[in-house]
Q: What sequence folds into this?
């Protein structure tokens, strides 16, 4: 493939990916508000558009129109840099995530993936773990006590649970023998890894909730204790960017959970050739939607952890359990 | 997974020319594209809200939020040393996790020898883990400074 065409195809894919992501974030947010409202026996936003369908657009305009405040005490450069770091890293991490098989368009093979690198899983882990800089810098540069406490909590929590997250993925990597996300999916032809690696799946899911600062692990932005946590001082679009990053990160960890544990785009295949191109993508989307629903469901159901419980649970329970899981997986694989 | 075709098919030689990516490093080019576009999007959003949004700053509005109280003291003066400890312990264990990744990829080829070596490695790491556990690095509900303990007799009667 000539470099020019490769560049063009990549550009189209990137633009499509970003457009789909931003739309998805908007509607996941709407879905969350509606579902949580139902759980709490409310109705949620219904006024803008048919059953609230245009609410995300209205919110976006409102965010842009609001006053952009930079506190006098804040570090001017880092204060702007922090939300940029959060958003850019969140959006970049998804570039290696495959959401379907391969098809041929006028002879050129097109993958449902921006790019296929052989260390995809490592790339996602690396880029998402850099996201902690956004939170720590936001709290430090704001120079407000609530922000600072929120960022301290956030930093410690994210590095602690990142460990459990990484260790939980070792088991499936041993089974697949690869860090290539496509090969990990293909290795699950016979059985989804959620069956042999159920313990790892539970650890991953718990750690993923903590990594994305979602209830029951939303201590960095605990509104009852810290105002709004690390983004207390942020307003207007910069505040929206932290939200955007949080929701994109939710989508990323859901995609990785789908790929590593739920067989990616595997599912029943039927119908004409054109349908067979898009059916895997539909299966993939349904599995990701399941995880996103789980996020919302948990938010409507569980109370928040206390900070000592949170750190104790991560270090004293999840990390040893993940290590034990690696040893057991290794033993079973060796003598199988 | 099977592969499917939209449009006309090609000869084998044509396909070989079209399917090979330009080079190994070229696979990382789309990541750069996505990074640049995401950066442009983020900066564009900030500039848009700067241009369109209203601006009516005031002294009180620009002061740090403290529930309406006058802000007191310096924020960055100090914080619990526990957070440092967690960061240091994290670095040690993260290196362990990084070592485990290539081992996991090659595990099926290393077989029993690989397993034994990794158990020894994990055992050494666990020894350190047990040490920090016993030293209370992972305990968050203990008070930051130990109160000076009173002699047992005084503590019992409560007269001091």
A:
């Amino acid at each position: 493939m000539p470099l020019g065409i490769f560049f063009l195809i990549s550009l189209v894919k990137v633009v499509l990916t970003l457009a789909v992501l931003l739309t998805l974030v908007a509607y996941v947010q709407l879905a969350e508000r509606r579902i949580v409202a139902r759980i709490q026996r409310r109705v949620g936003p219904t006024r803008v558009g048919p059953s609230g369908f245009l609410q995300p657009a209205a919110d976006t305009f409102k965010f842009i129109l609001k006053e952009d405040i930079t506190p006098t005490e804040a570090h001017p450069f880092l204060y702007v840099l922090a939300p940029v770091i959060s958003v850019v890293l969140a959006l970049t991490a998804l570039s290696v995530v495959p959401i379907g098989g391969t098809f041929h368009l006028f002879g050129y093979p097109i993958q449902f993936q921006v790019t296929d690198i052989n260390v995809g899983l490592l790339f996602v882990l690396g880029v998402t773990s850099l996201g902690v800089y956004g939170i720590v810098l936001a709290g430090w540069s704001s120079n407000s006590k609530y922000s600072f406490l929120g960022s301290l909590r956030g930093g410690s929590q994210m590095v602690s649970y990142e460990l459990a997250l990484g260790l939980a993925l070792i088991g499936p990597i041993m089974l697949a023998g690869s860090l290539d996300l496509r090969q990990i999916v293909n290795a699950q032809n016979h059985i989804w890894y959620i069956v042999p690696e159920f313990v790892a799946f539970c650890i991953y899911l718990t750690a993923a909730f903590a990594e994305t600062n979602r209830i029951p692990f939303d201590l960095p932005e605990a509104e009852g204790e810290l105002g709004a946590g690390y983004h207390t001082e942020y307003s207007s679009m910069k505040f929206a960017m932290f939200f955007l990053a949080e929701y994109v990160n939710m989508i990323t960890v859901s995609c990785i959970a789908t790929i590593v544990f739920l067989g990616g785009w595997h599912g029943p295949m039927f119908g004409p050739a054109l349908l067979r191109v898009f059916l895997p993508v539909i299966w993939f989307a349904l599995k990701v939607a399941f995880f996103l629903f789980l996020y919302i469901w948990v938010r409507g159901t569980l109370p928040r952890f206390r900070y000592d419980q949170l750190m104790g649970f991560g270090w004293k329970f999840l990390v040893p359990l993940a290590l034990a899981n690696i040893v057991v997986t290794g033993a079973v694989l060796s003598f199988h | 997974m099977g592969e499917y075709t939209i449009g006309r098919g090609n000869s084998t030689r044509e396909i070989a020319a079209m399917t090979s990516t330009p080079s190994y490093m070229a696979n990382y080019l789309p990541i750069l594209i996505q990074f640049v576009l995401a950066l442009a999007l983020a900066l564009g959003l900030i500039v848009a809200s700067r241009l369109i949004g209203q601006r009516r700053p005031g002294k009180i509005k620009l002061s740090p939020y403290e529930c309406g109280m006058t802000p007191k003291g310096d924020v960055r003066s100090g914080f619990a040393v526990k957070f440092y400890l967690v960061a240091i312990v994290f670095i040690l264990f993260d290196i362990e996790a990084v070592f485990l990744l290539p081992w996991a990829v090659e595990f099926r080829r290393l077989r029993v020898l690989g397993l034994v070596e990794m158990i020894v490695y994990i055992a050494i790491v666990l020894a350190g883990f047990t040490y920090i556990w016993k030293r209370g690095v992972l305990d968050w509900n203990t008070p930051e400074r130990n109160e000076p303990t009173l002699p047992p007799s005084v503590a019992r009667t409560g007269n001091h």
